Amino acid sequence: MAYTNEAQMADARSMLRCHAPVTLTGYAARFAAHPPSVMRRTLRIVSLVVSTLLPGLFHASAGAQTGAYPTKTIRLVVPFPPGAGTDAVARIIAHKLGESMKASIIVDNRTGAGGAIGAAEVARADPDGYTLLFVASPFTTVAASSKNAGYDPLTQFTAVAPIASGPLAFVVAPDLPVTTMREFLAYARAHPGKLNYGSAGPGSVNHLALELLKVRTGTDIVHIPYKGIAPATQDLLSGRIQAMTASIPATLPYLAQNRLRVLAVTGPRRSALLPDIPTWGEAGVANADVINYWGIVAPAGTPREIVAQLNAEVTKVLALPEVKERLEREGAELIPGTPERLEAVIEGDLVALRKLIATTGLELQ
Question: Can you name the CATH fold of 74-166+291-360?
């Protein structure tokens, strides 16, 4: 470009001064002094350092926010009344678990609707590891048999740890004119609708056991539901009802006093507590095994780290000789294992019960 006058030349010189090279100092000057290859290598090193350190920094930050577990009281909800077999097992575990974890663990009995009220409450709780549910077989029997259970065992809970399992004892009033299971079935067939049995409530394992017995044997025995097994036991002792199933330890004092008569156990094997008493299968009742199981679950979404910690602690507690001995006195067989093992038990039980209800017309309402 040609400049025609001094004014244009002055403007050009001004523009050149505005775009003069910038003077670099400090780190910028040293960085700029290196050739492009050195600069690229330096950038790769910086990128590597950042990618290595940042995850650790984020993890440390998350750990600082989460903190150690537990830092406050853990509530173990038992959806059955105090004194029941499940409550007794839960209190054994809660006591030893609290000692092992150096934490406060309280048992909170939230009863009603065969355990559904307590289960639904835990399903709605924060998934932070501070509200847990101690489950037994009604956790699945109620969900399988009722459309209004208020919870879903598979989608609203995270399995934590399996505890134990065990059969029930089938007992009758001593004034009933039978001494064996076969005699009881013959008497029931001869008197349809005249015998009754008690349970801990609709959907309870006691309810399931007798309804399954009725389906498998073609007998007509009237169901009398109670709010827990304790009042049902009292009515059996007083002669208001004729039969029921209950945890084996709960029946032992009355058997020793001849106030009840045991005819069978509901599991596939005889119980060590009642070695001379046959199973239902041995007494001619096929495909009617009923086992009560116990375990711990948490609300869905509970952090995996907390679930793993709780599972490890429960497994450690179950290995204690005093716990093993105490649970065996409850007629239970320990089944320590992973959360996945308990999840498989719950899912398998739920699927089997739904299939049984659909194919037999079994009523658990």
Answer: D-Maltodextrin-Binding Protein; domain 2 (3.40.190)
